[in-house]
Amino acid sequence: MRLDKFLKISRIIKRRTVAKDFAENERVLINGKVAKPSTEVNQGDLITIQTGNKKNVYEVIELKDNVKANEAKNLYKIIE
Fold it and tell me: What's the pLDDT tens digit per position in 7-48?
């Protein structure tokens, strides 16, 4: 699954266009490497998102195409 789509479906970032902007401005890393919006996300990957001085790290637990809002938090685990 594409990075921008995963960030939107998991509701880590509310809109896909915002997720795309984050990735294009090198504020998203997958397993320590700068990721583009089209980078493939796999189970077990660590996604790091830099917002200002804050850095959040998430581990991908599951990939699904359609998820209800209350089930979105089951797709990832917060590491930091």
Answer: 999 999 999 999 999 999 999 999 999 999 999 999 999 999
What does the block give as tokens for 77? 């685990």
> Which residues have a Cβ under 8 Å from the Cβ of 67 and sit 6 or more positions away?
9, 10, 74, 75
d(CA 33, CA 16): 20
CA 67, 1, 75, 4 torsion-angle sign: negative
Strand partners, 47: 30, 58
Burial classification of residue 27, based on how many CB atoms lie within 10 Å of its CB (0-12 exposed, 13-18 middle, 19 or more buried): middle
With a CB cutoff of 8 Å and minimum separation 6, the contacts of 20 are 4, 37
Could you tell me which CATH class the domain 3-78 is placed in? alpha beta
Q: Where are the domains of the chain?
A: 3-78
